[in-house]
């Protein structure tokens, strides 16, 4: 009887040891996978060198100004960060502005956005805009025309109601793209224009949906007939996004 009890105890110990070994092995394999594909997990730290994943927009929206500036600096995109703008309205202004023209191509002209928008734009250019230009036109986008970012106003310029993301430079309106040979693809003229131009614009819109919390195009309403509105919608719950 004592031998049978000892045998059972040994078997239990061996079984528990096997479970522990398998658990440890599984944990090591999981950590390897997490390290190889950090973009697939909501709790990993954002890097602007990682591919775009299902949680990239949430991570961009949650970026603290100092961390955001550091990420841009790692890519050599942080020449003009930490720009501050105050306003008479408490809901307006920003402390984390980034001057996009400071780092060259594509040229945005004289444009300053919040840091998280600048970070999202850098990923959008690399992962969507330039590949789409190469695929449709065998060219590179050298300039992106906008209707600006900062505007101390409420949504749609109304006298009351919610404040626009533009009030904190947390949004940008994209009007057109210019290629190396001078070709200009404009949202207003080309959304329903020549097939390759229309397809390019829809590709860049769809790619923006993976990076910005809000992406609005001419498919949304008449107010967006001439631009793509992109914003980070701070304060929205994780997982929230709008793509139209």
Oligomer: single chain
The helicity comes to: 25-40%
Low-pLDDT ranges = none
Tally the beta strands. 9
Beta content: 15-25%
Shape: elongated
Radius of gyration: 24 Å
Compressed to H and E, one letter per element, the order equals: HHHEEEHEEEHHEEE
- Tell me about the largest β-sheet: 6 strands, mixed
Structural class: alpha+beta
- For the residues shown, what is the average pLDDT? 91
**How far from one another are the termini?**
74 Å
Number of helices: 6
In total, how many domains does the architecture comprise?
Answer: 2
Keyword list:
244 residues, alpha+beta, 2 domains, three-stranded antiparallel β-sheet, 6 helices, 9 strands, elongated, transmembrane helix, membrane, Extensin-like_C, transmembrane
Description:
This is Extensin family protein. The chain crosses the membrane at residues 12-28. Pfam families: Extensin-like_C. There is one protein chain. The termini are far apart. The protein has two domains: 1-36; 50-243, no CATH class. The mean pLDDT is 91. The chain is built from six helices and nine strands. The protein is elongated. 38% of the residues lie in helices and 16% in strands. α4 (115-137) packs antiparallel against α6. The chain is α+β, with helices and mostly antiparallel strands.
């Amino acid at each position: 009887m004592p031998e049978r009890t000892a045998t059972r105890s040994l078997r239990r110990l061996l079984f528990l040891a096997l479970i522990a070994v398998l658990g440890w092995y599984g944990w090591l394999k999981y950590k390897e996978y997490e390290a190889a594909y950090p973009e697939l997990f909501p709790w990993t730290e954002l890097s602007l060198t990682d591919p775009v994943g299902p949680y990239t927009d949430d991570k961009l929206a949650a970026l603290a100004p100092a961390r955001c500036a550091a990420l841009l600096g790692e890519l050599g995109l942080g020449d003009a960060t930490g720009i501050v703008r105050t306003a008479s309205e408490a809901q307006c202004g920003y402390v984390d502005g980034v001057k996009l023209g400071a780092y060259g191509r594509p040229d945005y002209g004289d444009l300053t956005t919040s840091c998280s928008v600048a970070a999202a734009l850098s990923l959008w250019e690399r992962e969507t805009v330039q590949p789409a230009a190469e695929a449709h036109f065998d060219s590179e986008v050298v300039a992106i025309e906008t209707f600006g970012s900062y505007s101390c106003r409420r949504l749609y310029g109304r006298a009351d109601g919610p404040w626009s993301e533009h009030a904190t430079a947390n949004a940008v309106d994209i009007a057109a793209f210019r290629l190396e040979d001078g070709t200009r693809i404009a949202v207003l003229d080309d959304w329903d224009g020549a097939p390759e131009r229309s397809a390019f614009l829809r590709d860049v819109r769809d790619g923006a949906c993976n990076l910005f919390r809000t992406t609005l195009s001419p498919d949304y309403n008449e107010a967006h007939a001439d631009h793509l509105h992109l914003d980070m919608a701070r304060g929205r719950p994780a997982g929230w996004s709008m793509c139209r």
